[in-house]
Amino acid sequence: MTTTTVQNQSKTTNATPAKPQKKYGKIVLTLHNCLLPESAFKETPSQADGLDIETETDLRILGCEMIQTAGILLKLPQVAMATGQMYLQRFYYSKSFVRYPMETTAMGSIYLASKVEEKPCRIRDVINVFHHIKQVRAQKTISPLIVDQNYIELKNQVIKAERRILKELGFCVHVKHPHKLIVVYLQVLQYEKNKQLMQMAWNYMNDALRTDVFMRFPPETIACACIYLTARKIGLPLPNNPSWYLLFKVTEEDIRVVCVKILQLYKRPKVNPEELDSKVDALKKIYQANKYMQAQKEREAKIEEKKAESPTASTSKDSKRDSKKDKSPKTPPLSSKYHSSHKKRERRSRSPYDRKREYSNKRHKSRSRDREVDRSRERRSDDKRSRVSSRKYDDYDRSKPRDRDDKRKH
After folding, report:
1. Share of the chain above pLDDT 90, in %
2. Would you say the pTM of this structure is higher than 0.70?
């Protein structure tokens, strides 16, 4: 019985053909897509527009700091702040700081991150918080933001920035953070009760968000690097034989690269926002001038192409006109009345409100006409009645004196 069942099964498998696999689009959404290739770090769009590397890194650090402080004032969780900083970093590896302002992009990124991390906030609150941060940084008197046309334009710019970020990220907004991984790895190493180790590793990881580490390495490598750097700082021994990071499939070379990147961040001088704004504005003016010159050249090229095409067309048309003139006798020009009467009326696209208004006007006119007709009829009827009554009265008066005369005669 077993042999027969196996044979039957083999027959059924041979008889039924394999289903063809469905082919979908080429877009693959995975967590490994968050990492950028090395070619993206060699020449960014900002560097192509003339911005040097140091200014670009300072702008990235400033944008991340603004998102961090704004998230604290908005009472958002640390995960939402980290997500917003990663959106900002990714966006400016595909777009330039010269073409898209950093501040509005930072607002759009934290606004989008608050939605993704299920802690949504209002655009009005985001704009007010960034306005407050600018006033505190410039050491000005704190004053509320006035709701005027500039505020409405800024609000629209933030909405456009959010849409632009989504477009550039390909709507792949999921981010895996190493916050939880640090806690899990310390539990595996049995150091979860060491609060100093956990807090310092957490702090290193938050500072690493201002660098390009999250664009280069997976979160497991960053978590191991933060633990490695903290242990070296405190002087805490970690297992070496075998090395503890091999348990999490991380190499020592990657850990050291991440540690160097984090330590280089602390050696950089303090960012001056005014200098950065002046540099970006100067490059923006150059970019706009080049854009205007390019557009003017394109227009001139199109005009030249039309001129090159027009002589051949004009000569053919002139020859046709001359042949027609030779064949047909000369006729006097038509009058302007004829032309005006035979002109085609251009149809204008009207809104339903305009149609309704025209219909109501026509209806009102027709009603007014009906009223005038009724009034004229009433007047005519009144005139007729008055005439008839006057005639009767006259006849009566005429007949009365005759009777009196007859009586006098008698």
Report:
1. 37
2. no
